[in-house]
Specification:
The chain is mostly helical. The protein folds into three domains: 64 residues; 107 residues; 135 residues, no CATH class. The chain is 75% helix and 0% strand. It has ten helices and no strands. The two termini are 23 Å apart.
Length: 313
């Protein structure tokens, strides 16, 4: 089966699930009687609608290829960084470092991926960026909460640009016998991450009894993590045929993605709670902001990338 056939087979299954979900949402909307029920159903339908858009964007990227994928993720990093910094207010002395983050670091990071320069891509932000930003901030002369401000900018850049960029960086990998199929590896990562998030939410709502970290994320439960996480691992294992892994290798990689994604969602939920916010933004109806959709990806993508690189290359 060619890479194109594999992609459209998977997307056909995803689209079929979305059609079924849309029909269920329509039926539930007609049957909802109380205000609470209507609110829950409206939120569900908004999430389903957002998923239609996300799947459509993935299809466009696959059709247009590598450059379109890099542009898409660069824009995602831009909006995610803006959301992060909007919730963590900055001072006038931070303006120049922020300009460098948005208009130098983001395009440079994705350009390095585009030209396959792994050595510099892997160290540019965490070494040169982290050294440059505090120095530029210091030149502004504002020492008020200096350590807190610079750390906040550095961590925002790390999460929303450096870590997220590891998803399209999967296109850099040259896995023997898997040439020309790296977009399928990216699709695999995104599907396992997002399916894990959805199923953890569903299992938590249906069977959740024991809160995992109630002060950080009240919706996360032990039952949700185990039921949703293991179900996502099973889905990931079933997708082994679009990856360079064996069945059990795919199951192991899926487990790695699920665990890393869960930790990412939990860590960024803690940041939101510390700032008194429920969502990072309102960019995606029913899903909050861009970073609400990519919080799990920010942790899962770099871990997945390096495990694949050091085990298969």
């Amino acid at each position: 089966m060619s890479p194109q056939q594999k992609f459209w087979t998977v997307m056909g299954a995803v689209l079929a699930l979305l059609v079924v979900a849309s029909l269920i949402g329509w039926v539930l909307a007609r049957r909802a009687r109380s205000d609470g029920a209507r609110e829950v159903v409206a939120n569900l339908n908004a999430r389903i609608g957002a998923w239609w858009w996300m799947v459509a964007i993935l299809c466009v990227c696959f059709l247009l290829g590598r450059v379109a994928t890099l542009v898409l993720f660069a824009l995602a990093s831009f909006f995610a960084l803006r959301e992060f910094l909007t919730l963590t207010p900055t001072r006038r002395g931070d303006h120049l470092p922020l300009v460098l983050c948005f208009y130098l670091a983001i395009p440079l990071q994705y350009w390095l991926i585009g030209i396959d320069w792994y050595g510099l891509f892997a160290i540019c932000i965490p070494v040169y960026g982290f050294l440059l930003l505090p120095a530029v901030t210091a030149l502004g002369g504002d020492t008020e909460s200096f350590l807190e401000r610079t750390t906040k900018i550095q961590w925002g850049l790390m999460l929303t640009v450096y870590c997220i960029s590891y998803a399209p960086a999967l296109l850099l990998l040259h896995v023997p016998g898997y040439e020309g199929q790296n977009l399928l590896l990216l699709l695999y990562l995104l599907l396992v991450v997002q399916i894990s998030d959805v199923l953890q939410y569903v299992f938590g709502k249906l069977f959740g009894r024991h809160k995992l970290a109630p002060s950080v994320s009240p919706s996360k439960t032990v039952e949700g993590l185990l039921g949703g996480g293991l179900s996502a691992v099973a889905v990931g294992a079933g997708l082994w045929w679009i990856t360079p892994f064996s069945l059990w290798g795919s199951a192991g990689m899926s487990l790695l993605i699920v665990v890393a994604g869960f930790l990412g969602g939990l860590a960024l939920s803690a940041v939101k709670r510390s700032l008194g916010a429920k969502d990072w933004g309102q960019m995606i109806e029913g899903h909050g902001g861009m970073l609400d959709r990519l919080d799990s990806v920010s942790f899962a993508a770099p871990v997945f990338f390096h495990v694949v690189r050091y085990t298969l290359m």
